[in-house]
Design goal:
The protein is α/β, with parallel strands linked by helices and 421 residues long. The protein is elongated.
Length: 421
């Protein structure tokens, strides 16, 4: 039984206004957990239960429902939306059928719950939720965690969000906002709210914590590079591996740990390729695939350098988490990363797909401990507080309050016109 259907729970119209909580339904197109879902769980963790009644609609497959329930939030199931960028007619037909099934279930659940606000955590969820709420007048928030690629379907997605004036957009970075906006005059309908994380879960290391080094059988004098996150082509792990190969003879003390897992089935071949290259190049004792780790703070505390070599990156919250833990960061100058990292001040930036430049910078940093130490204090004390969970939640709550005020003003205006007629 849904939280909103509990016996004795007053219907929204019967509640005393002074005690009214804002009902929010969240939707997500997948039950699998990658970056957007991790941010989503963080968001729920910081959401005031005294202000909001919450229900999450997402597929059963994957870990998301379990993680949401662990935060004390009710869930209900919808079909998975299997939609990807393509122009192949057979795939488009299959994807359209998948979205249609999700739309029907979403519409049924949203009409039953009658929320004040619907928050779609992904673009695909935004598409389905907007269609599912046609005729209801519900405000639908699209939380955009992706930089839309140049593709005809991207133009269709933008146009859909634009023509439905009741949609509001949260972009996780200025770069994401600009990519989503394109040439359309969204004006004040797009808000940038940078992702935030619970910094208390990533405490500053008191000294170099070599837990991961010990597990990998490395000496305390080794230089450990960590790449943390989803294993997929977008993260540029193959290019990082190629950069490592360029310097591995010149710096025999350097090791690379790839920390994470594939999330979606189509990414498995990519990981297999990385492991095959590692084996063929005889790097099995220098390149370590650790799999997914739950003790990420300990991983960061063990790292001499955290590298995020993304080909595209909407934000890059892993950089904030690494900074909070005292690990220096090196990342590509793409997407929202420069909104976190200022080259030479709180970390370092290299150009995308510049394998030689990446290799040279890693080698330089591995030989200069003073350079590494010079950025950690700035990163921890100045950068990290800008991306705390508290600041993220404050901005999100302010947006919710604004949207509810706009809705109430609109309803009052309609009521006044009805009286005058």
């Amino acid at each position: 039984m849904s939280y909103f259907d509990q016996p004795g729970k007053p219907k929204k119209k019967d509640r005393v206004m002074s005690f009214h909580k804002t009902r929010v339904v969240y939707t997500n197109h997948t039950g699998k957990v990658s970056g957007a879902e991790a941010v989503f769980v963080n968001m729920l963790r910081g959401l005031s239960r005294s202000q909001y009644d919450v229900l999450v609609l997402c597929p059963e497959e994957g870990e998301l429902q379990q993680m949401v329930r662990a935060e004390g939030v009710e869930t209900a199931s919808i079909p998975e939306m299997q939609a990807r960028f393509t122009l192949r007619p057979d795939r488009l037909l299959r994807y359209a059928s998948s979205v249609a099934s999700a739309v029907m279930r979403l519409r049924r659940e949203i009409k039953r719950v009658d929320p004040d606000l619907v928050h779609a955590n992904t673009v695909r969820a935004g598409i389905a939720t907007t269609i599912a709420t046609v005729g209801t007048g519900k405000t639908v928030v699209w939380h955009v965690h992706d930089i839309l690629p140049k593709h005809p379907l991207s133009d269709m997605i933008r146009f859909l969000a634009y023509i439905f004036r009741r949609t509001k957009i949260i972009a996780v970075s200025q770069a994401t906002a600009e990519a989503f906006r394109g040439q359309l005059p969204f004006h004040d309908r797009i808000s940038v709210i940078h992702n935030g994380t619970d910094l208390s879960r990533f405490p500053m290391r008191k000294s170099v914590n070599s837990l991961l080094k010990r597990e990998l059988g490395l000496s305390k004098d080794s230089f450990l590079i960590c790449a943390v996150g989803q294993i997929c082509a977008r993260k540029g792990l193959r290019e990082l591996l190629e950069a490592f190969m360029k310097i591995q003879e010149a710096a025999p003390e350097i090791h690379l740990a790839i920390v994470g897992k594939t999330v979606f089935a189509h990414e498995t071949k990519y990981k297999d390729t990385l492991m095959r290259i590692t084996e063929l190049e005889g790097l099995g004792c220098r390149v370590h695939f650790t799999g997914e780790r739950r003790d990420i703070a300990a991983v960061f505390q063990s790292a001499d350098l955290v590298v995020l070599n993304s080909q595209e990156e909407p934000f890059g919250l892993v950089l904030v988490e690494a900074m909070s833990s005292g690990a220096p960061v090196l990342a590509t100058r793409v997407g929202g990363i420069p909104e976190i990292v200022t080259d030479g001040e709180n970390g370092w930036l290299v150009a995308r797909e510049d394998i030689g430049g990446l290799a040279a910078k890693i080698l330089e940093l591995s030989r200069n401990k003073a350079m590494l130490e010079s950025v950690t204090q700035q990163a921890r004390e100045v950068t990290c507080p800008r991306f705390s969970l508290e600041k993220f939640q404050f901005r999100l709550n302010a947006l919710y309050v604004q949207l509810m005020a706009q809705r109430d003003n609109k309803q009052n205006a309609h009521a006044e016109r009805a009286v005058q007629m």
